[in-house]
Amino acid sequence: IGSVNSFPQKSTKGSAVLGYVFRHLNLVEIDYFGLRYCDRSHQTYWLDPAKTLAEHKELINTGPPYTLYFGIKFYAEDPCKLKEEITRYQFFLQVKQDVLQGRLPCPINTAAQLGAYIIQSELGDYDPYKHTAGYVSEYRFVPDQKEELEDAIERIHKTLMGQVPAEAEVNYLGVAKSLEMYGVDLHPVYGENKSEYFLGLTPIGVVVYKNKRQVGKYFWPRITKVHFKETQFELRVLGKDCNETSFFFEARNKVTCKHLWKCCVEHHTFFRVSENESNSLSRKVRKFGSIGYKHRYSGKTSLRMTRDPSVQLPRPDQSIERSRSKTYPKRTQQTG
C-alpha cells in the first residue's frame, strides 16, 4: 500500500490512473480497491474513475505534486473467500495497517493471535537459533505496544509451525474479519441536540455509534433511500411492517455531507441485494439516491465479483513478491 506521486495530464480519466496502478500491482479483483486523496483541510476522497483529474477540484487544489494512496474501498465481508492470493495479500496489508494505526481496535488476546500470524508470514517457522530473545519487539502491531503483547505473540508463533505465508495471511484475515470495527468506514455526524454520532458504512449495512457504542444497525436491503440537502443527511429504512422511517443527521458542512452521501450510495450499490430479488423492496431501492444529484457507481458489485464467469480465477502460476515490514531496534531488558 503506497502512494503515486506523479501521473499524466489533467485531462486523464481517473480510470486510466487506476488501471495503471492495478496493472503495476498485478490485481484482477480490482473493484474492492481505490485511490484516496486529501484536500487542504484533510477531508478524504476517492478518485472517481469516470471523471478527469481536472474535475477532481479538491485534488487539483493541493498540487502539484499530487499524492494518491492505494487502499481498500470496499472491504469484502469474508476476505478469506477472495479468489486470488494476491488480492488476499493486499487485504492483509491494509487490515494490518488498520490495526497498527488504531482504526481497527482489538483486545490483547486477539492482537497477540494476529501478531503471531504476521510474524509467521514474515519470518516463517520459529527457529531458536535465529529468533533470539526479543525478536518480536523489532516489529509493530498495535498503537502503544507493550512487552506483554510481544511475549504473547512469541508464545503463539512457536505453535504455528508449517504455515506458509499465504496460509498465515488467510488465518490472519479469518480472525480480523470477526472484529466489530472490521471494514467500517466511519463518518462523524450530529443527532438531536447536537449530540455526536458516527455513521459506519460496512459490508452489511449502516451502523450508528454514540459514545463508541452501537445504537443502531440498518442492513443494505432495508435501506430504501439516502438523501442530503445542505448539511442534512437522511437515511430512509423499510421496517418489518413494510413502513418506511427516516432518520436525520447533521454533517459538519456541505462538503462532508455530500461526501457521506456519495460513499453511502457506492456502498449500497456494491453490497446490494441480488438483481433477481423481486418484491416491493427491490422496486423501492431502484429510486435510491438524492433528487437533483446524480452519482453512479460504475464498477462491479460484490455479487458480480463472486459470480463473474468471464474471468477464470485464480490465474495459474501467480508469483507474489511480498514486502518486508519496517523494523525497529530490539527491546532490551535495560531499556524496557
Q: What's the topology here?
A:
Elements lengths: L2 E2 L9 H12 L7 E6 L5 E3 L10 H4 L7 E5 L12 H16 L7 H16 L23 H11 L7 H12 L8 E6 L5 E6 L3 E6 L2 E7 L3 E7 L2 E7 L5 E7 L3 H17 L9 H6 L16 H6 L29
Antiparallel strand pairs: 1-4, 2-3, 2-4, 5-6, 6-7, 7-8, 9-10, 10-11
Helix pairs in contact: 3-6, 4-5, 4-6
Pfam families: FA, FERM_C, FERM_M, FERM_N
GO biological process, one term: actomyosin structure organization
Subcellular location: Cytoplasm, Cytoskeleton
Folded structure, characterized:
The protein is 30% helix and 18% strand. The strands form three sheets. Strands 1-4-2-3 form a four-stranded antiparallel β-sheet. It has a four-stranded antiparallel β-sheet with strand order 5-6-7-8, covered by helices on one side. A three-stranded antiparallel β-sheet has the order 9-10-11. By secondary structure, the chain is α+β, with helices and mostly antiparallel strands. Strand 7 (205-210) and strand 8 form a beta hairpin. It has helices at 14-25, 57-60, 85-100, 108-123, 147-157, 165-176, 254-270, 280-285, 302-307; strands at residues 3-4, 33-38, 44-46, 68-72, 185-190, 196-201, 205-210, 213-219, 223-229, 232-238, 244-250. The model is unreliable at 274-288 (pLDDT under 50). It folds into three domains: 14-72, Phosphatidylinositol 3-kinase Catalytic Subunit, Chain A, domain 1 (Ubiquitin-like (UB roll), Roll), CATH 3.10.20.90; 79-177, Acyl-CoA Binding Protein, CATH 1.20.80; 185-306, Roll (PH-domain like). The protein is built from nine helices and eleven strands.
